[in-house]
Amino acid sequence: MTDTAQPARSHRRRYGLRPTMKDVAARAGVGLKTVSRVVNGEPGVTPDTERRVQEAITALGFRRNDSARVLRKGRTASVGLVLEDLADPFYAPLSRAVEEVARDHGALLINGSSAEDGDRERELVLALCARRVDGLVVIPAGDDHRYLEPEIAAGIATVFVDRPAARIEADAVLSESFAGARDGVAHLIAHGHRRIGFVGDLPHIHTAAERLRGYRAAMAGAGLPVDGSWIALGPTDPARVRADTERMLAGGGPAEPVTALLTGNNRITVTVVRVLAALPRRVALVGFDDFELADLLTPPVTVIAQEPALLGRRAAELLFRRLDGAADPPRRVTLPTRLIPRGSGEIPPQP
Amino acid sequence: MTDTAQPARSHRRRYGLRPTMKDVAARAGVGLKTVSRVVNGEPGVTPDTERRVQEAITALGFRRNDSARVLRKGRTASVGLVLEDLADPFYAPLSRAVEEVARDHGALLINGSSAEDGDRERELVLALCARRVDGLVVIPAGDDHRYLEPEIAAGIATVFVDRPAARIEADAVLSESFAGARDGVAHLIAHGHRRIGFVGDLPHIHTAAERLRGYRAAMAGAGLPVDGSWIALGPTDPARVRADTERMLAGGGPAEPVTALLTGNNRITVTVVRVLAALPRRVALVGFDDFELADLLTPPVTVIAQEPALLGRRAAELLFRRLDGAADPPRRVTLPTRLIPRGSGEIPPQP
């Protein structure tokens, strides 16, 4: 799927469909200050007036946070970016792209990291909302985003990137993980490999599951059986990846050792490169995600490259569409990946 | 200089020395709601009362932002981190370390990037303060931090990292740029080099200036002249670095080409590695900053390593000292660097 054309917009309004204090005042037939008192629980309002204002608030679905927004003229817009891991170089170009789009729209970008934890993601997202970000770009860690529904209803636009939202409908910008992984394995098969291993991230992560699915599809498409020992999913920390990779390369048990590997992301690839560098025999490697200096290694690493900057830019652009009032149904944009043969993926099977 | 011992603390108070609305109410002899009306410019306060409250505000140095802070019980503390470049992998472990310390203190971390621009740094810092961060860790891009004085006076603790604050006194955690660069160049001299080039960052950046100073000190210490064409300072973008490096390696003009290079940071090193890989002759290289996969390149790269995670951790620890009320004079912590010989720095001069 490629990027779809711009749909028609229902109407243009800054910050989406949020009712303002002015709307409440107009509907209740009172002044802005009166609404402010009611909203802030200040004294000095007759019960009758208070009831009229409350009715208007309920009817319009007005939310308290808006009061400060309306009162504070000339406030700089800001958007939040929730990353999954501050230390992963993959997100660096993505973050920078989101920042550039934000800057083009005169908005500040504030980031936070969920440290790959769903609870922390929620805490951080709600904290950013409380600090009045106008919108969010989220690389989700959690498996249930219904906690965002009240915020989205109140007008905080949210776009998911790299992985889709879980259990809610929201804009998302993704890469073609399934097809990219499938093509990477097909490339190894085309170079003669029959015993191919897959070292991936935790299986509940959307991208890891899609890449596993792609691996399986390529093997099945070539009529090749997959031994269970050829699949190792788990955290990307070097110790785990190293242990699983060494085990897969040693073989033992009924299955013969693999002659080629597909690695599920840049963090895993960087560890596996080290394991392979110490091996006496040559094992072919295709890594999902490009990474810095991949072409200067020995051998240079064949990769399935995403475009993290483009992911970030598209996500931020979708976000500002929403902030400008676009109210069409949530969209999913899927960007293609690109196989870059550099050497490691073209090594033939070693007898 | 190494990390100094803990000094005595004057007194412990959450959020430093900020007066609260309760303090103002007590001093003026009025209720909290009355102070709130005066602070928010709401009607319903007699001129006499208003004057008493304003006098109390002035006498105590009360700042408006505090009202929400006092009223909102149980609010999660948050600290801001202002980076200089979201895409530089050097800052990834630093950011993660700050985040971990913040989490240990039950605080959220929100980041922003100045994109290497002093005006943007200021805009972002003030925006974070307006969003009620309790403290800031700043990698400064600007050359004048006096804009922070009102915020620091109001109790927003600020610690600078990687580079010191400019024109104000504040806690700072730095690496030994001067000594590290000097030792790197001394290492090249010890391996026989006499014509050594330095490719560094923009000269107004503190770390770049210190590393240049270290380069000069090592050359002078060995009685070696420095030709002007052997120093190339400027932005770290690959095109500039490549052009300057190629020029320095080609020689031409009165000076002979260099036989070794010191590169000023990881961004520059990564570009120079590519330039050297294409050269027919071998040129020795010592890079300031370690970087991922440096040991897997051909030749493996000799570096002067900092410890970005430790820089981040120390800065965050200093920040929470201040937030806990430590009121001693600003401290400067300087962490040592470490020369890691891996191959590229031990290549002898090629005739």
List the helices and strands and how they pair.
The structure is a homodimer.
Chain A: H1 21-28, H2 32-40, H3 47-60, H4 66-71, E1 78-83, H5 91-104, E2 108-113, H6 118-130, E3 135-138, H7 149-153, E4 157-161, E5 171-175, H8 177-190, E6 196-200, H9 206-221, E7 231-233, H10 238-250, E8 260-263, H11 266-277, E9 284-288, E10 302-305, H12 308-323, E11 332-335, E12 338-340
Parallel strand pairs in A: 1-2, 1-3, 3-4, 4-5, 5-11, 6-7, 6-8, 8-9, 9-10
Antiparallel strand pairs in A: 10-12
Any overview of this molecule?
The structure is a homodimer of 351-residue chains. Chain A is α/β, with parallel strands linked by helices. The first copy, chain A, has 3 domains: 21-64, lambda repressor-like DNA-binding domains (434 Repressor (Amino-terminal Domain)); 76-175 and 309-335, Response regulator (Rossmann fold, 3-Layer(aba) Sandwich); 177-306 and 338-346, Response regulator (Rossmann fold, 3-Layer(aba) Sandwich), CATH 3.40.50. Chain A has 12 helices and 12 strands. Chain A has helices at residues 21-28, 32-40, 47-60, 66-71, 91-104, 118-130, 149-153, 177-190, 206-221, 238-250, 266-277, 308-323, and strands at 78-83, 108-113, 135-138, 157-161, 171-175, 196-200, 231-233, 260-263, 284-288, 302-305, 332-335, 338-340. Chain A has a 6-stranded parallel sheet, with helices on both faces. A 6-stranded mixed sheet of chain A has the order 7-6-8-9-10-12, with helices on both faces. In chain A, helix 9 links the parallel strand 6 (196-200) and strand 7. In chain A, helix 10 crosses helix 11 (266-277). Chain A starts with 20 loop residues before the first helix and ends in an 11-residue tail after the last strand. The model of chain A is unreliable at 1-17 and 65-74 (pLDDT under 50). The A-B interface holds A 33, 36-37, 42-44, 76, 78, 85-89, 92-93, 95-96, 99, 103, 108-113, 115, 123-124, 127-128, 131-132, 270, 273-274, 277, 292-293, 296-298 and B 33, 36-37, 42-44, 76, 78, 86-89, 92-93, 95-96, 99, 103, 108-113, 115, 123-124, 127-128, 131-132, 270, 273-274, 277, 292-293, 296-298.
